[in-house]
Amino acid sequence: MKPSSGRLVVPPPAGLLTQLARFRASALALILANFVPVFGVLALGWNAAAIVIFYWAENLAVGFFNILRMRKARGTLRSSGMTLNGKTVTEASRASLIVFFAFHYGFFTLGHGVFVLALFGRQFAGSPRDLMIGALGLFVSHGISYRKNFIGGGEYKKVSFADLFWQPYGRIVVMHLTIIFGGALAGASGSPVGALILMVALKTLVDLASHLAERRKFLRMG
């Protein structure tokens, strides 16, 4: 297309516009869920410890929806190379691998929770009820991504249940290292509002980047 100014304008590729439209709902839900702590800080008196514990609860949502993904996934197992009890994983191993994931991930989440409580528990300022209500927002956010992207976007057809076994760990480790160090810095400075909001913004950016990278990975599988 060539406007009157004489400059050539190249329109964005249709594929990019399609991707942005496809991911808009889940990305917006993720951002809104992550900014629940901003309301907690400004209106409910949350401090760094409350925010870190709130974000720890996201482990539960991630694990729950990964189990649903493993149940639904229909991708080929040829490239996974995964073994269970010394045997190559096959379709008959699906239920056993899901149970193994639940225990494996459950212990990971428990250990992470003990670490978070040991580090931040004594400084906690907030209402457990408010944290639980806020955590529901995290479940809604992950539920939207599951429904819009994994099911509606056909991602379940491209990935095997074995590939999904390790899927949550990398994202969670990066995400929670970000908030643990951010929480420690905010706590050291007396948890001022600006530091807490900066921590929330940093975690949201990391989480959003991971979310979009995951979506692009599934697109490449197609």
Describe the structure.
The structure is a single chain. This protein has 222 residues and is mainly α. The chain has one domain. 70% of the residues lie in helices and 2% in strands. The chain contains eight helices and two strands; from the N terminus they run H-H-H-H-E-E-H-H-H-H. The protein has helices spanning 14-34, 36-44, 48-56, 58-72, 94-120, 128-151, 167-188, 193-221; strands at residues 83-84, 87-88. The chain has a two-stranded antiparallel ribbon. Strand 1 (83-84) and strand 2 (87-88) form a beta hairpin. It is globular. Mean pLDDT is 81; it is low at 1-17.
Largest sheet: 2 strands, antiparallel
Report strand order across the widest sheet: 1-2
Whole-number count of domains: 1
Described by the principal axes of the CA atoms, the overall outline is: globular
**End-to-end distance, in Å?**
31 Å
Category by helix and strand content: mainly alpha
How much strand? under 5%
How much helicity do the residues have? over 70%
Low-confidence stretches: 1-17
Number of helical elements: 8
- Rounded average pLDDT: 81
What is the total tally of β strands? 2
Keyword list:
222 residues; disordered N terminus; mainly alpha; 8 helices; 2 strands
